[in-house]
């Protein structure tokens, strides 16, 4: 009895073991099938993506080629147009620049003329045909040129300069300087008479007490005629005053 029970129990265990083995094999077969299916699907979709990318790249290349040909055509047309009229752009630009330059020069000339006319009106009492110019010389604001006569002299030739106080040259230079600015010599302070090294040439630094203006009068000795003013400079400040301080 015990042996029969033991044999039956052994058969049951074997049967259960085979059933488990069979079940496990079935699971493995199912998993293998799923994996194979996934691989097939992956391969299929991957092939489609590659085909789409190739079509897309080919389309881009075709578009780029088409755009390049279009750009080349437009560039070629533009070059032909430029070659037909190579100087048209340059002529327009040059014409505009010339016109702008001419207008600027005309404006500068008009401003200079207006300024010169105003200055000439201010100093027209200095003599006939007075010309007034702006100056960039240090301490000089304006240069006045006129048509002055020589101040009559009582000296004989040959002449030699004597700038000492009370000398004939000094008296005549004072009167000639006053004449150049159309002022009375009694209303003028004569600060300095000096020569720049040239013979028969003197520069007189004077102050008109009527308006306080400082002038430097350039005078030249004219043989048998006397001292003649050549030009008058309007000074910003008295640069000879330091000699007496």
Can you describe this structure?
- The protein has 245 residues and is of the alpha+beta class.
- The protein has a domain at 130-235.
- It contains three helices and seven strands.
- It has helices spanning 2-84, 88-122, 168-180, and strands at 131-134, 140-145, 151-152, 188-194, 201-208, 214-222, 226-235.
- Strands 1, 2, 3, 4, 5, 6 and 7 form a seven-stranded antiparallel sheet that branches.
- The model has no long low-confidence stretch (mean pLDDT 80).
Protein topology:
Blueprint: H1 2-84, H2 88-122, E1 131-134, E2 140-145, E3 151-152, H3 168-180, E4 188-194, E5 201-208, E6 214-222, E7 226-235
Antiparallel strand pairs: 1-2, 2-7, 3-7, 4-5, 5-6, 6-7
Transmembrane segments: 24-45
InterPro entries: DUF1510 (IPR009988)
Organism: Allobacillus salarius
Features:
245 residues, alpha+beta, 7-stranded antiparallel sheet, 3 helices
Total DSSP E strands: 7
Please give the share of residues in helix. 40-55%
Strand content: 15-25%
Task: Tell me the span between the first and last alpha carbons.
Answer: 159 Å
Q: SSE order, as H and E?
A: HHEEEHEEEE
Q: What is the makeup of the main sheet?
A: 7 strands, antiparallel
Q: What would the average pLDDT be, to the nearest integer?
A: 80
Region (Disordered): 50-123
Transmembrane segments: 24-45
Biased composition (Acidic residues): 50-67, 76-121
Keywords: Membrane, Transmembrane, Transmembrane helix
């Amino acid at each position: 009895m015990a042996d029969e029970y033991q044999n039956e129990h052994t058969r049951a265990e074997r049967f259960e073991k085979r059933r488990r083995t069979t079940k496990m094999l079935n699971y493995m077969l199912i998993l293998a099938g799923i994996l194979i299916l996934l691989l097939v699907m992956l391969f299929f979709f991957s092939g489609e993506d590659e085909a789409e990318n190739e079509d897309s790249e080919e389309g881009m290349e075709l578009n780029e080629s088409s755009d390049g040909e279009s750009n080349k055509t437009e560039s070629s047309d533009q070059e032909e147009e430029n070659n037909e009229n190579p100087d048209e752009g340059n002529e327009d630009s040059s014409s505009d620049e010339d016109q702008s330059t001419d207008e600027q020069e005309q404006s500068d000339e008009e401003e200079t003329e207006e300024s010169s006319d105003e200055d000439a009106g201010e100093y027209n009492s200095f003599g006939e045909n007075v010309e007034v110019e702006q100056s960039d010389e240090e301490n000089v604001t304006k240069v006045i040129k006129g048509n002055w006569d020589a101040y009559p002299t009582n000296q004989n030739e040959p002449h030699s300069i004597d700038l000492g106080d009370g000398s004939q040259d000094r008296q005549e230079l004072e009167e000639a300087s006053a004449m150049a600015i159309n002022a009375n010599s009694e209303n003028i302070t004569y600060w300095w008479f000096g020569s720049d090294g040239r013979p028969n040439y003197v520069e007189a630094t004077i102050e008109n007490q009527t308006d306080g203006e400082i002038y430097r009068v350039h005078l030249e000795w004219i043989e048998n005629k006397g001292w003649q003013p050549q030009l008058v400079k309007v000074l910003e400040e008295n640069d000879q005053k330091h000699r007496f301080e």
